[in-house]
């Protein structure tokens, strides 16, 4: 009787581990943009890294629903972000840091996500969820209302993107596994680089390199950098446990969040992640995505 009971316990343990593995695979291969995204807000803080000083967060969206995926304009004067307001679809908005005014940039039947100003400066690129749920890269003119343009006709499903120069991008392509790919706009060609990656793609300051999170296993995630011209990959640092969103400051410092706290790590200077601030007193419990202005003075934080 005891032997049979032990076998049942061992079997249940094996099944449990199997189900955990299945859940991890499903979690990392679902569509990048859910039809029912979580309620999120975007906060801004002022940074003084030399003195390790961070201001109290300011909520710039204050909107019940989904406000996410912020990115700064190259001049640092405004922030583009994704917001779900009506009809359960998302559009792109612009927040002016000086006037504190918000302007809607897109109003379409499709959903747009992850806005980024293109290297030319006269467009912003987005991931567009088309009517048939295809996710591809499009661009809209910054100057005002006009028809958007499809950029990479045959590349799908695109989850996230990062501009490397005017002709090349790093892409997060959804699949089993999710992959890091390089894409050339002028030809439409792609090059597969790595599998099992996270959603955050960030240019490395002062280098012809892009950084990403490599998920070797559910408990082993590492930030790596790719020399995108030479195609060499090198490790940088293990992520904070369970965190996959990060940004670089202009001086080469990495910032990452875990729970309500903000951490920093500077390669070849600090030996591990160090806490910079804890925003729990501001009612923030779970931070996710980050964006930083070109001067490294203003940080946007998404709180879920």
From TrEMBL:
Assigned keywords, A-Z: Signal
Pfam families, alphabetized: PD40 (PF07676)
Q: Which SUPFAM superfamilies match?
A: Tricorn protease N-terminal domain
- Tell me the first and last residues of the signal peptide: 1-34
Q: Which InterPro entries match?
A: 6-blade_b-propeller_TolB-like, WD40
Which superkingdom is the protein from?
Bacteria
Q: Does the keyword Signal apply?
A: yes
The answer to whether UniProt assigns keyword Isomerase to this entry is no
Q: Which residues cross the membrane?
A: none
Please give the family membership noted in the entry: Belongs to the TolB family.
Descriptive protein name = Translocation protein TolB
């Amino acid at each position: 009787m005891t032997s049979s009971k032990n076998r049942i316990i061992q079997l249940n343990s094996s099944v449990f581990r199997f189900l955990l593995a299945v859940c991890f695979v499903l979690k990392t291969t679902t569509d990048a943009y859910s039809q029912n995204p979580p309620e999120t807000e975007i906060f801004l803080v002022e940074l003084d890294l030399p003195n390790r000083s961070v201001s109290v967060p300011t909520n710039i969206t204050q909107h019940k629903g989904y406000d996410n995926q912020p990115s700064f304009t190259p001049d640092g004067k405004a922030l583009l972000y994704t917001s779900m307001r009506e009809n359960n679809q998302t559009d792109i908005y612009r927040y002016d840091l000086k006037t504190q005014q918000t302007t809607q940039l897109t109003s379409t039947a499709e959903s747009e996500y992850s806005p980024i100003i293109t290297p030319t400066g006269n467009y912003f690129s987005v991931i567009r969820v088309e009517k048939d749920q295809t996710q591809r890269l499009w661009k809209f003119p910054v100057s005002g209302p006009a028809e958007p343009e499809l950029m990479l006709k045959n590349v799908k499903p695109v989850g996230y993107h990062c501009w490397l120069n005017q002709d090349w991008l790093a892409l997060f392509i959804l699949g089993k596994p999710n992959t890091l790919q390089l894409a050339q706009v002028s030809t439409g060609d792609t090059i597969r680089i790595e599998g099992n990656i996270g959603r955050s793609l960030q240019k490395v300051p002062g280098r012809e390199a892009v950084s990403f999170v490599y998920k070797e296993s559910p408990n082993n995630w590492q930030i790596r950098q790719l020399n995108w011209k030479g195609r060499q990959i090198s490790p940088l640092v293990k992520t904070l446990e369970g965190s996959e969103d990060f940004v670089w400051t202009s001086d080469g410092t990495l910032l990452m969040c875990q729970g309500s706290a903000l951490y920093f790590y500077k390669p070849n200077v600090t030996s591990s992640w160090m806490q910079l601030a804890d925003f729990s007193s501001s009612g923030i419990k779970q931070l996710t995505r980050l964006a930083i202005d070109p001067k490294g003075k203003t940080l946007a934080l998404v709180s879920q």
